[in-house]
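Hi Y.,

Following your request, here is the sequence exactly as I used it, all 131 residues.
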Amino acid sequence: MKKQTKAQVKASKAKRQALVALSQAVKPLVEAGEFENVNSALIAHYSEAHGVSEEDWGTFKTWQEKGLAVVKGSKGSTIWGRKRKIEVKNAEIEENATDEEKETAKAMKFYPTATIFHIGQVETPKPKEDK
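Below is the corresponding structure, written out as tokens. Let me know if you'd prefer a different format.
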């Protein structure tokens, strides 16, 4: 796998921090039973923002499997990926964080992020031209 540049690592961390903040904002809705899980709440939020249905989302791979292509340059929306097992080092957690923030940071480290695209960002692939 290709090593990320410093700019890519910084952008990835910023995207993850934004996802953590948004996840914390929708967590009360999940706890109130309005949504099954945080990702469902995130997708509902993104759907409202983009004016599409909650069923109109998929990953790059999902759209590809349906015979569609994500439009080049499209910016996806971020959700949590499937849980993975990793070891979190205490040095990675801010020293002045509260106990709750430390536990949240540890829990969030176990989840990679996934990028999803809405149906308005996909198209039928164009046939390749012979050269």
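The beta strands are 57-59, 69-70, 77-80, 113-118, 122-123.

Thanks again,
Q.
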